[in-house]
UniProtKB/TrEMBL annotation, chain A:
Gene3D superfamilies per the UniProt record, alphabetical: P-loop containing nucleotide triphosphate hydrolases
Organism: Actinophytocola xinjiangensis
Protein name per the record: Peptide ABC transporter ATP-binding protein
Transmembrane segments annotated in the record for this chain: none
InterPro entries linked to this entry: AAA+_ATPase, ABC_transp_ATP-bind, ABC_transporter-like_ATP-bd, ABC_transporter-like_CS, Oligopep_ABC_C, P-loop_NTPase
Domain of life: Bacteria
Domain ABC transporter intervals: 8-255, 295-536
Nucleotide-binding among keywords: yes
Coiled-coil parts of chain: none
Family in the record: Belongs to the ABC transporter superfamily.
Gene Ontology molecular function: any one: ATP binding
Length: 543, 341
């Protein structure tokens, strides 16, 4: 076998829209030998998913392919439909992004894993043999056979992704394409899934093309890295070399967006190219003032079916001082979002108390309204947080109207947009969300919060849905807001890098309790609790 | 790669969503309970509604025949109409509980007998028409969604919309005129048909053609449009890409993955729309003098036969409520996600 497993020769993919043609992939040359692993990095819209989907010709009808896609020596772009269907999943299979949607919700996962086996078998396999094969595949991904009888919604995110991997291996493919296989997962689950995939691919000598926007994830899994930018490959090489010495400025930006926790270079320094720069790190104060927000022994208990109690928050003490940025870190299901909702007065306390600026958290509707003016929320996904039919002006002014803020509304909106660094504000006011970029949308959400001049911002994963280059800009904005307005922030995140980038203190939440609270330097550099240690250990590292 | 440490503590293992459900019996009982409440409301409303209708019941009973005030008072007393309203209602409820819907003013037979006699022609007509309409609608809807924007899609959707907006009675009369002589225009059977089963069945089928065509034409469109739109919603789903990547043929992707998901909202709507089908049946039966419940309701309304009206309303509403309960239960069977919650 002297031809490579996958060879792309001057590959071009064009999408024909109603009015114009867009080249998503422009003249890409790429080679992958059998058993090799290649990471494909880039931001959303750089063409990396289009490139990956073109290998099995899974592109929408509006796409046209130029150049050659040689899969095991055969050109996919000119294959007949019958041959293409035969090649799909047997030569190359795909682990899709977001297993939640990539699995059929109304069919048991066993049947979904078995489907390609039956489809590609020369003669229909016996039911017992098929069952054994699926059980073996499930065992490979460390799932018990009974999970095969589950429906996708009965599995956790990590388990679903394992099912996707088992499915991808069903027909013993020679190439697996993994499209953002761990994006929606927690750090620890991500580490488990990556480890599993790396091991299986190495054991079975399968070639792997993994796509991600996270360089660290790719570097920890793949031998080689290719960085895509605007449809072209701008840099390619050994993972270690690319990470250590990025040549292209886009690679540098991608690398900087995911800081190395513990590296002082990244402390209070999210990647930003904004001319406003970064404020100086806050001076270390020995005697902290009165806390702005104080939670004492906060408990939230949910009663499930059959009277089972779930202690979502089980006795939490947390302070946020004026002008302080606190990161609340934990896995999904750790109770951090419930805690945040409680702090915002959106969730009743089962026990304990919360005080803000010396006064107890109000319970009356009127009191809560006044309180929420001072404590504002920034949500994860700006696209769904903004009403698609409201202009930027309307979105920002809504809070002002609800709270009947005195003064000229237009001036307030302009000031808020200015504060969120949407300049000049007049130009942004009439725009609708779909006319903005992801980062601009998040700035509009922040402006909406700022319009009410709050003292505390509660931000739930404020950059999780944003591109790498935008991530640093939004984080830098939070730092500048703190420096200029003395705005305190409670940032909820699963991303330890974010905490390292901007937070003064970090609180690690695990199963409803804060297992470790302290300054970022202390906790992340010298963790005490086992959970914090495993969180840090699960971070992908270049190796 | 060795520096990715997989935590070994059991406690760190990701927790899958909690297993719920198990209360299937409870779910079904809740739905049936809800249905009974609806039925009770229909019974109360049915009673009150026909008593606030303008016009005098007793007068209309005599329909122009000379009636002395004594005769009318006697009739009023016989029917219990001179009692206070709440007593009439209690009487009505008491008898309803015993399965007695009262006696028809006009036919002078128990309402239950009359309804039972007219039930099966309606079941036959509505049943056959619904089956045909559902089959036709789902098939057309699937085809037009899968080839969205094609000529087939445009034409079939246009035709469906046109037929849907056509008044039932007008369409019925149009059909009668267009096919004059080919099909019988009224009734269930000819009186001179031999009494053996085959001849009777063939004659009923012959009589059924026009009412069925009318009813199907009016109702199939909603099934087609619902199926089309719910399949369109599934068209961009990621699991269809997965299915294609597995090497499935286009029709296999559609049959095995897209349609089962698209059917979920459609099934519920099919059942919910049965109420409208029954409404459509009233008109159709009237136009074709099909001796079913619809025609009976129409006649009862015309001559103000209160017991008969109340009876038909209870039966028709009961049918719709039963269908709704069935839809809820069926949805739970079909969609594993609903089963769990």
């Amino acid at each position: 076998m002297n031809h490579p497993l996958l060879a792309l020769r001057d590959l071009t993919v064009r999408y024909t829209g109603r009015t114009r043609e867009v080249a998503a992939v422009r003249g890409v040359d790429l080679t992958l030998q059998a058993g090799e692993t290649l990471g494909l990095a880039g931001e959303s819209g750089c063409g990396k998913s289009t490139l990956a989907m073109s290998v099995l010709r899974l592109l929408p009808a509006s796409a046209s392919i130029g150049g050659q896609i040689l899969l095991d020596g055969e050109d996919v772009s000119t294959m007949k439909w019958g041959r293409l269907r035969a090649v799909r999943w047997t030569t190359a299979s795909v682990v899709f992004q977001g297993a939640m949607h990539a699995l059929n919700p109304v069919r048991r996962v066993r049947d979904q894993i078995a489907e390609p086996i039956v489809l590609h078998a020369p003669s229909p396999p016996a039911a017992a043999a098929l069952r054994k094969r699926v059980d073996a595949l499930l065992a490979q991904v460390e799932l018990p056979a009974v999970k095969g009888d589950a429906f996708p919604h009965e599995l956790s995110g990590g388990q679903k992704q394992r099912v996707m991997i088992a499915m991808a291996l069903a027909c013993d493919p020679r190439l697996v394409i993994a499209d953002e296989p761990t994006t929606a997962l927690d750090v620890i689950v991500q580490a488990q899934v990556l480890e599993l995939m790396t091991r299986l691919v190495a054991e079975q000598d399968i070639g792997l093309v993994m796509i991600s926007h996270d360089l660290a994830v790719l570097a920890s899994t793949c031998q080689r890295l290719a960085v895509m930018y605007e449809g072209e490959i701008v840099e390619q090489g050994e993972s270690r070399a690319v990470i250590a010495d990025p040549r292209h400025e886009h690679t540098r930006a991608l690398a900087a967006a995911f800081p190395t926790v513990g590296d002082p270079v990244y402390r209070y320094a999210p990647a930003t190219s904004n001319e406003l720069g970064l404020p100086d790190p806050p001076p270390a104060t020995e005697s902290p003032g009165e806390p702005l927000l104080a939670a004492r022994d906060v408990r939230v208990t949910f009663t499930g079916r059959g009277r089972a109690l779930t202690h979502a928050v089980a006795g939490v003490d947390l302070d946020v001082r004026a002008g302080e940025i606190v990161a609340l870190v934990g896995q999904s299901g750790s109770g951090k979002t419930t805690l945040a909702r409680t702090i915002l007065g959106l969730q009743h306390l089962t026990g304990g108390r919360i005080s803000f600026d010396g006064a107890e958290l109000p319970t009356s509707a009127k009191g809560l309204r006044a309180y929420r003016r001072r404590v504002q929320l920034v949500l994860q996904d700006p696209t769904s947080a903004l009403n698609p039919r409201h202009s930027v002006y309307e979105s920002v002014a809504e809070g002002l109207r609800i709270h009947r803020v005195a003064g000229d509304e237009r001036e307030h909106v302009a000031a808020a947009l200015e504060a969120a660094e949407l300049r000049p504000p007049e130009e942004f006011m009439p725009l609708l969300p779909h006319q903005l970029s992801g980062g601009q949308r998040q700035r509009v959400v922040i402006a909406g919060a700022l319009a009410l001049r709050p003292q505390l911002l509660v931000a739930d994963e404020p950059v999780a849905s944003l591109d790498a280059s935008v991530r640093g800009e939004i984080l830098a904005l939070l730092l500048r807001l703190r420096a200029r307005l003395g705005l305190a922030a409670l940032v909820i995140t699963h991303d330890l890098g974010l905490a390292w980038n901007i937070a003064d203190r970090v609180a690690v939440m695990y199963q409803g309790e804060l297992v470790e609270v302290g300054s970022v330097d202390e906790v992340l550099a010298h963790p005490h609790h086992d959970y914090t240690k495993s969180l840090l250990a699960a971070l992908p590292t270049t190796g | 790669m060795s520096d990715i440490i997989t935590p070994t503590e059991d406690a760190l293992v990701e927790v899958p969503p909690p297993a719920r459900g198990g209360g299937t019996l409870r779910y079904v009982l809740t739905k049936i309970g809800g249905g009974l409440v609806s039925l009770a409301l229909v019974i109360v409303l049915g009673f009150l509604l026909f008593r606030v209708l303008p016009g005098d019941v007793v007068q209309s009973m005599f329909r122009g025949r000379p009636a002395t005030p004594e005769l009318m008072a006697e009739a009023e007393a016989r029917l219990g109409l001179n009692k206070p309203l709440y007593e009439q209602f209690l009487d009505y409820l008491w008898r309803l509980l015993h399965g007695d819907l009262g006696e028809s003013y006009v036919f002078n037979v128990p309402v239950t007998d009359k309804i039972l006699e007219r039930l099966w022609p309606t079941v036959l007509l509505v049943g056959v028409a619904t089956l045909i309409a559902v089959g036709l609608g789902l098939w057309l809807g699937t085809r037009s969604a899968w080839r969205r924007g094609s000529r087939f899609d445009r034409i079939s959707t246009g035709v469906a919309l046109t037929l849907w907006s056509t008044p039932t009675f007008w369409l019925g009369m149009l059909l009668l005129a267009a096919t004059s002589g080919l099909f019988p225009t009224a009734g269930l059977v000819y009186s001179d048909t031999p009494p053996d089963f085959l001849s009777q069945a063939l004659d009923v089928a012959h009589h059924m053609v026009l009412p069925t065509v009318t009813l199907v034409a009016v109702i199939y469109a909603q099934y087609q449009l619902v199926m089309r739109s719910s399949l369109l919603e599934e068209m961009d789903a990621d699991y269809l890409t997965t299915a294609r990547a597995k090497g499935l043929r286009d029709d296999q992707v559609r049959r095995r993955h897209a349609v089962p998901n698209a059917l979920l909202p459609t099934v519920t709507l099919v059942f919910l729309h049965l109420g409208m089908v029954i409404a459509g049946a009233v008109t159709t039966e009237t136009v074709f003098s099909w001796p079913g419940l619809g025609l009976l309701t129409y006649d009862a309304l015309r001559v103000r036969d209160l017991p008969l009206l109340q009876g038909t309303i209870v039966v028709l509403a009961g049918a719709v409520i039963i269908m709704n309960v069935l839809a809820d239960v069926l949805y739970r069977v079909l969609d594993p996600r609903v089963r769990a919650s």
